[in-house]
Amino acid sequence: MQQIIYFFIRNKNFLLFFVLFLISVFLTINSHSYHKNQYVNSANFISGGVFSVKSSITDYFDLKDQNQKLTEENRLLRLHLQNIEETIPALDSIQPVNDSVFSIVGAKVINNSYSKTKNQLTINKGSADDVVIDMGVISSEGVVGIVSHTSKNFASVQSILNSNSQVAAKFKKSNHFGTMIWDGKNPNVVQLKEIPRVANVALGDTIVTDGRSTIFPEGVMIGTVKDFVIEDVGDYYNISIDLFTDMTSLKHVYLIARKDAKEIKELEKEATHVEQ
């Protein structure tokens, strides 16, 4: 104990300087948006690097299983994209369908949480790879999340297992649409709200993305109806959905970008401004 006390007495000047330095850094970051943004970007870079090293080590001992899974994911992705294309109306007699509205980039998941109420993923693609905020993220099985932050080489993705997550979704068979959310409980089950009582709902019905936003194309798989009840207030269903995507074992994902998203957002913003 005496040695510890002697250590603090002997190094009191340095310790005082270090404490004051930490306080000054904290105050600087919180009082200036520029420094705060720089701090966030630096934190993303550092954490991304740590997660990347960790992921590389674990993947080395799991190469065979990952190669088999990646092969299966590529097969499922091709079927998945075919399903999206089938939702596009046949307009050959009028004009050619632009099949390059969406661009797709592959990425690797280097960190993933699914046991919190606001879960995030970290992927090994960033602004240097043209990744931007609000890009949709899917797996070969279905919806995964939306890009929320980027650094040069990495990006954070707001998982669909996040209490703030909202995705426009619909019934594949009837086009009745609503909003997909997560109640923070089961990582394999999400909820579908705002489906009117007049809709014909059955167990096992397939739920897909609705395409009412610029984030996901129409027809990306979400899951199947697990259970449903009529809400106590209002004439709407409260529907539980079994996810197609296993959110607890993600390794490879795909980022989707709509090339005309900026134009659409600017038009909608202008229209909203005129109506106000």
From TrEMBL:
Q: Does the keyword Zinc apply?
A: no
Any one biological process term the GO annotation gives: regulation of cell shape
Keyword Zinc assigned: no
Which intervals hold domain Rod shape-determining protein MreC beta-barrel core?
109-256
InterPro entries from the entry?
MreC (IPR007221), MreC_beta-barrel_core (IPR055342)
**What cellular component terms from Gene Ontology apply here?**
plasma membrane
Any Pfam family matching the protein: MreC
Entry keywords, A to Z: Cell shape
Signal peptide annotation: none
- NCBIfam families named among the record's database cross-references: mreC, PRK13922.9-3
Biological function: Involved in formation and maintenance of cell shape.
Family stated for the protein in its record: Belongs to the MreC family.
| Name of the featured protein | Cell shape-determining protein MreC
User: What species was this sequence derived from?
Assistant: Halomarinibacterium sedimenti
Query: What taxonomic ancestry is recorded?
Result: Bacteria, Pseudomonadati, Bacteroidota, Flavobacteriia, Flavobacteriales
